[in-house]
Amino acid sequence: MKKSNAKCEFASQRSQLLIKNFQESIARQSKISINKACKDAVAAPAPRFWVSEARATRIVSMIMKGEKVLDGMHLQKRKMYLEIYERVKAKKEANPELPLGDIVFDVVNSPAPSFYITIDYARKLLKSQQNSGKV
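Above: the chain's sequence. Below: its structure in token form.
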């Protein structure tokens, strides 16, 4: 279980990219919709998975052992870990000699299909950035 006070080490980079995606979505719209801009921002591809290599390795290892670690996770987080797991599994099958941690490192630092955060959480991040004058 993740500690409740744990901070994402990539929060700043993630927030900057989220803002950029949000602003680009607004710029493309003829009739501005904040909801659409938020949806577009979180659905945009990300340059990496927004999770630490250590955390992802723990979760993937638990999945491989058959532990029900994904039960009770928010849908987006569950989807993210399943995507990471599937990529790790494929790489491990192709390269069984590689340590799990090395494979997870490569996967987590590869492009992700989305931000894997909820629209509500994106709004919260955007509002926080707006209040600090970054939007």
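Residues 75-94 form the longest helix (20 residues).
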